């Protein structure tokens, strides 16, 4: 009843997202079995890069799980999954350097990261309300509700779009750190690219899904306005 032509594109984007997640896991597993030239663990690489960038006060901690790595800007701590923290593979050093890239972004007040942090409280609120307004508007054929839902949902979409340069920049920094500090050789850069590019694709797919969903509701809204 509520199928819209845009749904076909959303399904394709969702399939891309699933494929991206498959690629992330596959590349991480593959390059986790290839030792990095330096023999340094992810924890050692993270610690060294942090210290080189004047962030010796930021701790590096292991956390359970796989691909649970992240930089916590509130607690100011780099948390690495156990395979990354203790591993000395291409995958381990790549992910560790990427997360440290976020810490350096925070220190340097990287524009996109600052904007994303400022948006987060608002997005946290609007993303919980928007789906109810959008679905309620569709069910009740109340296009005013859909309009408000679109405005609120737009913040979530903008948040995901802003996330893209943040992630791409962190990966770019990671590659530079790994090469300049001698943690990898030039011929190992291919593995680093495979790991980080696959992870970046998941963010691209998520942003694409959200953007297409937003466009779908915008089209429904304007179609409803014309019919009224």
UniProtKB/TrEMBL annotation:
UniProt keywords, alphabetically: Membrane, Transmembrane, Transmembrane helix
Transmembrane parts of this sequence: 6-22, 122-140, 146-166, 195-222
Top-level taxonomic group: Bacteria
Organism encoding this protein: Fictibacillus solisalsi
Leader sequence residues: none
Protein name: Peptidase
């Amino acid at each position: 009843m509520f199928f819209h032509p845009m749904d076909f594109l959303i399904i394709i984007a969702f399939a891309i997202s699933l494929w991206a997640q498959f690629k992330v896991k596959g590349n991480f597993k593959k390059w986790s079995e290839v030792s990095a030239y330096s023999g340094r663990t992810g924890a050692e690489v993270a610690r060294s890069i942090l210290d080189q960038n004047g962030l010796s006060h930021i701790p590096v901690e292991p956390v359970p799980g796989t691909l649970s790595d992240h930089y916590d800007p509130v607690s100011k701590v780099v948390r690495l999954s156990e395979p990354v923290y203790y591993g000395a593979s291409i995958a381990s050093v790549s992910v560790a350097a990427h997360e440290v890239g976020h810490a350096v972004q925070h220190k340097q007040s990287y524009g996109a990261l600052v904007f994303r942090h400022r948006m987060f409280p608002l997005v946290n609120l609007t993303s919980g309300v928007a789906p109810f307004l959008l679905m309620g508007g569709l069910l009740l054929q109340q296009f005013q509700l859909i309009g408000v839902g679109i405005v609120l949902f737009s913040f979530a979409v903008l948040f995901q779009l802003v996330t893209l340069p943040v992630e791409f920049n962190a990966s770019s920094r990671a590659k530079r750190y790994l090469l300049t500090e001698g943690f990898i050789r030039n011929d190992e850069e291919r593995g680093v690219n495979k790991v980080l590019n696959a992870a970046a694709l998941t963010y691209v797919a998520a942003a694409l899904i959200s953007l297409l969903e937003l466009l779908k509701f915008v089209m429904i809204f304007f179609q409803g306005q014309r019919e009224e």
